[in-house]
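The methods section describes the discrete structure representation at length, but only in general terms. Each protein is reduced to its one-letter sequence and a matching series of backbone shape codes. I believe one specimen quoted in the main text would settle the matter. An entry of this sort, consisting of the sequence and the corresponding backbone structure tokens, reads as follows.
***
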Amino acid sequence: MKPGDARHQVTGAGVGVMSDSELEHGPRYKIPESVLVVIHTADLQVLLLERSDHPGFWQSVTGSRNHADEPLAQTCRREVLEETGIAPADGQLSDWHLENDYEIYRHWRSRYAPGVTRNVEHVFGLLLPAPVAVTIAEREHLRAQWLHWRDAAERCFSWSNVEAIRQLPTRVAQQSAAPVRIAAGRK
């Protein structure tokens, strides 16, 4: 392909090659609805990933829906596996029923359709029995690190990620509180 062919598109990031799908249906933009998955242990260790496109920016697993009707739990499982190599079935995925609506950083807006400036983020937790080794997606992340929740909250660049991690002690305590059974009629 050479510039001028139908497959070449010029974006704010330069010239790129369009796929057959993009030629037929137009460019594929990110859906402005995403998940934030705080991967943690019962003793409040949190997994953070350092972004490859912004070294020094640490975060939990994040990602957008692949299509508008993709279930959020499926988005979580896909993103966790893609970004860390962790099989979510090895842990307990929970919907925190927390949504954050925020303005998309200017340097990432080109990933979204023209005019899209806001994203809705759904927060989930993934409880693992213990810290595990991760296999990072090198195109997305440079390093992974398990940290105590307070240290993890200090290291995150995103306010929504910081707030989610700060909720972790309360959420873990609620998860581990098991109902007590009392046998009726016994003396």
